[in-house]
Design a protein that fits this description.
568 residues, alpha+beta, seven-stranded mixed beta sheet, 16 helices, globular
Length: 568
C-alpha cells in the first residue's frame, strides 16, 4: 500500500473576505500547493524536531464565495481522497455584512469512536456534527469553529497514546503515561485530528483555537506553589517546552491573520528562508517556548477578530498569569492592558472567549474566591497550606480564584454594557469551556447591555456521575449560600454584580453554536446520539437553546426594562 506524503490536514484555519490559510503536516520536506478556481498557490515546508509542516496562504479570493480546492504534495494530489465518500473540501470566504454564525466548545479526548469508546467517553459531538454536515442536509455552515481549550490531553492519555509511549521509553519512569517531548505531542495531535469525519470537517470549516490546562497539564499555572513543584521535577522543562512549541505549530500559527503572521518573529524566519533545503526551526522554537514560559510578556497568545458588527476577543487564560503572591493575577499587566484596549462598544455583540468561565455558578465562584484568600494567608500559614492542597485537588483556579483580575474585567464589561466605552452593544457575552458541564448565566441588570456567560464543555470527555453531583452541590443550592459566607469570612470583596443561571447545567457531550439574528443572539447546544446501535455513524440531537434578546436602546445612565429571554 502506498503511504501518503500527507500526515495530517489539510486544516482550514484563518479565513477572511479574500484569503484563507491552509495548514498541513507532511511526511518529508515538500512543496505544497493548493488549487482552487483554476489558480495555484504554493508553500514550502519547515521542520521542527524531524516533522514537516506548511501553511499555504490562498489570497486574491472573491468575498462571500465557496470554492472547492485540491491539495498536492510535490505535484501529486493528496486531498481530497476520492474514495473517502465525503464531499469536496471548500474555501468559504467571509461575506461582507453577513451576521456571524459560529460553533464553539472545549474538552475533547482522542479515543476510538466504536462502542467501547462511546461507552467510556460518550459520542464525539464534533464528529457527529461532521457526519451531519457531510450528509448535505441543507443546514447553514458556521463561519468558524472556536475550540476553547483541551484540544488534546497531555496528562490523561488514551490506550492508543500509551502504546506509542511504551514503544519508545519506559512508561514506569517519570512522566509515566503523560507526554514527555515534542515527538509524543506530534503523535497526540495525529490521534486527535486524523479521524476521517473530523479531518474532512476541519479541511472545510475555518477554526480558531486557544489552549487550556490539559493541553499542557492539569492545573497549569494555578499557583506559584504548583509551578515550583513542577519545576522541581526531572521532566517538566522538556514537557513545557514541547507543549508550547507544538501548540505554536499545531494550533496558534493558524489563528494569525496574514498581517499578524508577517509580524511574528518565528514566521519571519520561515518566510525569509532561501535555499533548497527547508528551514529547521527546532532550536529557535524550543528557545522561544522556554522564554514564553518563563516570561509571559515575551509573546501574546490572545487574539482578536471582527466579523462585521461582532467582535470576538480570544483571551489566554493560562500562560499570561502572574503568580507572584503580591501581584497574583490571571492576566498580567501587559495582557490586561491588551484586553482593556479591545473591550469597547460600537459593535452589536462583544464576544469574549476565555477557556475558563468568567461567570462560574455563584456558589463555586465564592468558594474559589475564599480559597484564594486563605491560600494567600488570610487565615495564617497552616490554613494556607491546606487551602493550596484543596485548590489543586478541586481545580479551584478559575477567574473567581484570581479576584484582582476578576474585578478588573468585570468593571470593563460593565463599562461596555453601560455605554461608557462607545455605544453599548446588545450583549457582552463570555464564551467558555473547561468545567465539563454546560450552562448559560446572566448578570442581573435592568439597563444597558445584557452580560451573559455561555459555556460548552465537554465536546467529548464527560464527568463521572459522582463528579456531576459534586459539581452541582458546589455550584448551586446550599453551595451558593455556604460559598458566600466562606468568602466573607476571609474578607473577600463582594462581586461588583450578581448573576444567575438561566439555563442548565447539562452534562452531555456537546458542540455549541451561536448566530447573530434580528431577534437577538441565538445560542444552541447539540449532542451526538447513537441510532439503531450504529456507533460509527451517530446522529445529532439538540439539547437546549436560548435567544438573548436585546433591550431597548438606552443612553448611559438611563434605565430600561429588561428584555425578555426567549427559550426555544
Amino acid at each position: 500500500m502506498t503511504i501518503s506524503p500527507l500526515v495530517l490536514g489539510p486544516m482550514m484555519r484563518y479565513v477572511d473576505e479574500t484569503s484563507a490559510s491552509i495548514w498541513v503536516e507532511t511526511r518529508a520536506q515538500a512543496r505544497v500547493s493548493v488549487r482552487a478556481g483554476g489558480r495555484d498557490w504554493v508553500g514550502r515546508t519547515f521542520a521542527v524536531h524531524g516533522h514537516h509542516y506548511a501553511l499555504v496562504e490562498v489570497d486574491g479570493l472573491e468575498p462571500g464565495t465557496v470554492t472547492p480546492y485540491t491539495l498536492a504534495v510535490n505535484g501529486s494530489q493528496v486531498w481530497p481522497d476520492p474514495a473517502s465518500g465525503f464531499p469536496p473540501p471548500v474555501i468559504p470566504t467571509l461575506k461582507p455584512g453577513k451576521p456571524l454564525r459560529m460553533a464553539f466548545g472545549s474538552c475533547r479526548t482522542s479515543v476510538p469512536h466504536d462502542e467501547a469508546g462511546n461507552r467510556t467517553h460518550g459520542v464525539d459531538a464534533l464528529r457527529a456534527y461532521a457526519l451531519e454536515m457531510a450528509s448535505g442536509n441543507g443546514q447553514a455552515w458556521p463561519d468558524l469553529v472556536s475550540f476553547l481549550g483541551d484540544q488534546v490531553y497531555a496528562d490523561l492519555t488514551s490506550e492508543q497514546m500509551q502504546q506509542f509511549i511504551r514503544a519508545r521509553r519506559d512508561i514506569n519512569e517519570p512522566p509515566g503515561e503523560e507526554l514527555q517531548d515534542y515527538e509524543e505531542y506530534a503523535h497526540l495531535y495525529s490521534l486527535a485530528w486524523s479521524d476521517p469525519a473530523n479531518r474532512w470537517l476541519l479541511s472545510t470549516l475555518p477554526s480558531a483555537m486557544i489552549f487550556d490546562d490539559h493541553d499542557i497539564r492539569d492545573d497549569w499555572n494555578s499557583s506559584l506553589t504548583w509551578k515550583k513543584g513542577m519545576e522541581a521535577t526531572s521532566w517538566w522543562h522538556e514537557r513545557i517546552v514541547a507543549g508550547l512549541a507544538s501548540y505554536w505549530v499545531y494550533q496558534h500559527l493558524g489563528n494569525l491573520s496574514p498581517q499578524e503572521r508577517a509580524e511574528d518573529p518565528l514566521w519571519q524566519r520561515i518566510a525569509g528562508h532561501t535555499g533548497e533545503t527547508e528551514p529547521d526551526l527546532t532550536a529557535e522554537l524550543d528557545s522561544f517556548a522556554e522564554r514564553a514560559d518563563q516570561d509571559p510578556t515575551s509573546y501574546r497568545w490572545s487574539f482578536c477578530r471582527d466579523f462585521g458588527d461582532t467582535r470576538l476577543i480570544v483571551v489566554d487564560s493560562r500562560a499570561a498569569r502572574n503568580l507572584a503572591p503580591a501581584d497574583r493575577a490571571l492576566l498580567d499587566d501587559a495582557e490586561m492592558a491588551w484586553l482593556d484596549g479591545r473591550m469597547r462598544g460600537g459593535v452589536r455583540h462583544l464576544l469574549v472567549a476565555t477557556s475558563l468561565p468568567f461567570l462560574l455558578p455563584m456558589g463555586l465562584h465564592h468558594v474559589e474566591a475564599w480559597d484564594e484568600a486563605v491560600s494567600e494567608g488570610a487565615w495564617g500559614k497552616l490554613p494556607a497550606r491546606a487551602a493550596e492542597k484543596l485548590r489543586q485537588a478541586l481545580d479551584l483556579e478559575h477567574w473567581g480564584a484570581f479576584q484582582q483580575s476578576f474585578q478588573k474585567v468585570a468593571a470593563m464589561a460593565a463599562d461596555v454594557a453601560d455605554g461608557n466605552r462607545g455605544p453599548a452593544p446588545e450583549t457582552v457575552t463570555f464564551l467558555s469551556g473547561d468545567v465539563h458541564f454546560s450552562y448559560v448565566a446572566e448578570v442581573e441588570r435592568s439597563s444597558g447591555s445584557r452580560i451573559v456567560q455561555a459555556v460548552c464543555s465537554p465536546i467529548r470527555n464527560p464527568l463521572p456521575r459522582i463528579m456531576r453531583s459534586l459539581s452541582a452541590v458546589l455550584s448551586y443550592g446550599l453551595g451558593a449560600a455556604a460559598g458566600a459566607l466562606a468568602a466573607r469570612s476571609a474578607k473577600v470583596p463582594d462581586p461588583p454584580f450578581r448573576w444567575k443561571g438561566i439555563r442548565g447545567p447539562w452534562f452531555d457531550n456537546n458542540l455549541a453554536f451561536l448566530e447573530v439574528a434580528p431577534e437577538g443572539l441565538k445560542l444552541w447546544w447539540q449532542t451526538g446520539v447513537v441510532n439503531n446501535g450504529d456507533h460509527l455513524n451517530p446522529g445529532t440531537e439538540r439539547v437546549a437553546s436560548v435567544t438573548v434578546a436585546p433591550r431597548a436602546a438606552v443612553k448611559p445612565g438611563v434605565s430600561s426594562d429588561a428584555a425578555a429571554q426567549k427559550d426555544e
